[in-house]
Amino acid sequence: MKKNREHSRSFEEVLTLCRESDDFINEELLGKENSIYYLSYFSSLCDSTPLNEFVFNPLKKKQCYSLEDIKEALPLKGVKAVSSGKELEEGLNQGQVLIRFEQGEPYGILASVRLNENRQISIPEMEYTVIGPKEAFVENLDVNLNLLRNRLPTSSLCVKKVTIGTISRTEVAVVYLKDIANKDNVQTMIQRIEAIEYDEISDTSYINQFIEDNSNSPFPQLIDTERPDRVAAQLTEGKIAVLSKGSPSVILAPTTMVEFFSAFEDYYIPWHLASAFRLIRLFAVLFSVFSTPMYVAVLTYHAELIPQDLLATLIMSRSIIPFPPIFEAIFLELTIELLREAGARLPTKVGQTIGIVGGIVIGTAAVEAGLTSNVLLIIVALAALASFTTPIYRIGNTIRLIRFPFLLMAQLWGLLGISLLGSFLLVHIITLKSLGRPYLEPVYPFRFRDFKDAFIRVPFSKQYELPELTQTAKPERFSKKKAKKHADIDEHIR
Amino acid sequence: MVKKIRVLLFSFLSGCLLLTGCVEPHILDEVQIVHATGYDFVDEGHIRGTISIPVYPPDEAIHSETLTAVSSATREIRLLLDAQSNKPLHTGKVTVVLFDRKLAENGLMRIIDTFVRDPRIGMRIQLAIVEGSSTKNLLETTYPMEVDTAMYISELIEQNIERQNIPQSNFHVYLSNFYGQGRDPFLPILRQEGNAVRVTGLALLKEDRYVATLPLKDCFLLKILLERFGEGSYQVNLNQDEHAMLRNLESDTDWEVENASSNPEFKVNVSLSGRISEYSGDTLGDPKIEEIRAAAITQLEEDLNNLIKHFQELNVDPAGFGDQVRQRDPDFSDEEWDKIFPDVPVEFKVNLTIKETGIEE
Prior knowledge:
The structure holds 2 protein chains of 2 kinds.
Chain A: H1 2-6, H2 11-19, E1 24-30, E2 36-42, H3 48-61, H4 67-73, E3 80-82, H5 85-93, E4 96-100, E5 108-112, H6 141-151, E6 157-164, E7 170-177, H7 183-194, H8 204-211, E8 223-225, H9 228-235, E9 240-244, E10 250-253, H10 271-300, H11 308-318, H12 325-345, H13 348-368, H14 374-387, H15 393-413, H16 415-431, E11 433-434, E12 437-438
Antiparallel strand pairs in A: 1-2, 2-4, 3-5, 4-5, 6-7, 7-9, 8-10, 9-10, 11-12
Helix pairs in contact in A: 2-5, 6-9, 10-14, 10-15, 12-13, 12-14, 12-15, 15-16
Chain B: H1 2-19, E1 32-33, E2 36-43, E3 46-55, E4 63-71, H2 74-82, E5 89-90, E6 96-100, H3 101-105, H4 109-117, E7 126-131, H5 135-140, H6 149-163, H7 171-179, E8 186-193, E9 196-206, E10 209-215, H8 216-226, E11 232-239, E12 242-258, E13 265-279, H9 286-314, H10 321-328, H11 334-340, E14 346-356
C-alpha cells in the first residue's frame, strides 16, 4: 500500500491524466515578438481575475527566454520551477498554473492563482452563547488559523502541519503554545495523526475517531468545538488543538469527562452563576440517563419504594395501559429518538413543525389512546430535554444511547441491574484516557487543584494555577503574589 | 486475551438471561397493593385477618375495599386472602397493622413475626391496638376525612406523634422496645367513634401482652421522659375553675442513677420549656405566669410520681428506667430488673421555663 503511494507518476503521465478532465485547460499564449507560452491549469481551481492580471498580462507584455525570466515576470508569490511529476500533480491540484515554452517539455513554472471559495464566518450554531463572541470556525484552514492567531498574538503559538489521507491529501494543523504545552502531549498528538492510514479525511471527526484512545467506547474522549474563543482559552491551559482543511470543528486534547458539560458561556458569566448552571447540567445528565430506567425498575419490581401519595397517581395513570412498563418506556423513548432523528435530517423550518407535531400531537394522542401513561410521558420528555443541555453535542448522543442498556437492565434485574450496569460503566470510564491522560480526572485520580474548574468554576482570581491534567511546562497563569490590589475609589456612604 | 474477554462476556450475557427467571416482577398495576392489615381474636386457636386494599376504578373516585379470612396461622390467612383476590397481594405498601385488644392480651409476637421476616415491610409502618370494636369493623368503615382508610389511620397516628401527646412509635420502636433489655413496648390505642377514629391513649405491654391503658393526657408525661423535643399539651389546674394549657416545645431529661449495680435509685431532672396556649382567667400578668409556673411544676412532679407508681404497680417499664440502669451496670439482666423495678425509688425534679404566653390585647 505504502509503496504504491511513494511511487509517483512522471511529469508527462500527470499531464496526460489531467487532460482527461474537461476542466483541464491547455492553451497557447502569444507573447511579445511571437514568443509562445503553453499554459496548463484546472479552470475550476484557478481564479480568473488574478490569472488574467498576474499571469496573462505580464507574459504578453514581456519577452522571456528562460524559465527564470518567467519567474521574474510574474508579480506573484511562490512562483517556482517544477520538474518532478509529484510536485506538478500537487501544484496543479492546488490551483497552480503550469507555464512552459514547449508542449513536450518535462519542466516548467508553477504559479499559484488559487480560487478560494469560502463560507463567511458566521455565528456558532451548536455552541451558541448569549454572551461572548459570536464567531465560529469555517471550512477554510487559513481562515481558522487566522482566527486563532488574532486571539493569541504570540510567537509561541506553534502550528505544525501534517498531510494525511492518500487521496484527499488533507492538511491538518496541530496548534499549541510552545511555552505552555507539554512536549509529550504534542509529540503524541503528532504521532497519532501521522499514523492515520486512510484515503479520504472529510472532517476532524474522522481524525477524532482515528486518534481517540479507545475508539470502541461510546464516550467521546476528545472535545470538538466550533468556537475560536474556546480553543484559544484551552490552548493557554496547555491543551493541543487539531484543525483540518475543510472542517469547521477543532479537536481539543487532552480533556476530561466533566469538561464536556461545561459550556463556554460559563466563563462569561459570574462564577457562582456559572457553577450553579454547571451543576444543573450535570444533574440533568444523571436525570436523563437514570429517570426512565428507574421508572421501569420501580414499577416492575419495587412498588414499595413509591411514596404513598404518589401511588394513586401512578396506578391511575397506568390502569388502562395494556403493556408492561418496559414496552411503554421503549415505545416512548423510540418515539423521542425518531423525532430527534427526523428533526436533525429535515430542513430547519420543517424540523420545527415536526417537533410540534411530535411533541404535542403524538404525546397527547399516545396517552389518550392508552398506549403510555402520562407520568412516563413527562419523564421521557424531561429526560430528552435534559440530554440536550450538554454543551458538546457529541456527549449528548452518548447519553441518549446508554439509556437503552440501562432500560434493559432495569427490566431484567430492577434497581440491582441499574446499579450493576452503573458499576460496569464507571469501571469503563475510569479506564478511559484522553491523549494518555486520565479521563475522569480530577475525581480519579483525585487532584484537588483541578477541582477549581470542574464541577464548579471558581473566580478567575483564584485560577492562577494551570490545570494538572495537561502537565504544562509552566505551572502558573500568573503569579499570585504579583497580582496586587488596585487602589480603588472608596467613597464613604453614610 | 480477546478470546478470554469474549468468553467472559458471553457467559455474563447468558447468565443474565438464565437468571432472570429468579426475579419475580411485581408490576405496579398488576398487583393488589395492601394498605392496612387488621387481626382479630376469634377463639383460642383462630385469628381473623382483614386487609384494606385501595381500588382505583377508571372513572370513579378511589375507595377502599376489605377482604377477610379466618384461620389458625397468619400465613394461612394470607393464602385464603390471596384466594379472594384477582391480582396477587403485595404487602410492600402496608402502612398500618392493627390488632384487636383481645388478641393483644394473648400476645402479639406470633403475628408480628411474619412482618419481621418480610423484607418488603418497612420499619416505619404503624402498629396500633383497637379497642371497642373489631379491626374488621374499623377497616370496613369509610371515613369522610380521607378516601383511603389506611391512609386515614396512619396519618392520624403520625399526626398524633408529631404534634400531639403520643410518643414516637412505629414498627422499629416497637421491636427495639420488645427486644431491648430494660424496656417494655407500648402501642397507640384507637377507638372507632362514628365517622372518625380517635387515639385514646397508649397500650402498655409486658413482653408482647397488653397490660393496661395509659390515658391520652398522661401520654404527655411519658413523652417528655422519652423525647428531647416534643410537642404535646398539658393542662395545669390552678383551682377549681381556673386552668391553663401548656404546650411543650422542648424537654430535656437528665437521668441520675445511683448504685446502679446494687440498689438503683433514680433522680430524674426534667427540664421543660413551653408556652401557655390557653388560660381560663382574664389577663396574664407576670405574677400570674409565675403562679402558673409554680403550680405546673408541683402538678407535673406529682403526676410523674403517680405515673411511675402506676408503672411499678403494673411492673411495666415503657419509659426505659431499666435501660438507664443497664447503661450503667454491665451485669444487668431483665429477670433481675423485673423483680426490683416495683420498689425502685424514683425522685422527679421538674424545671419549667415559660417562653411565650401568646398574643394579648
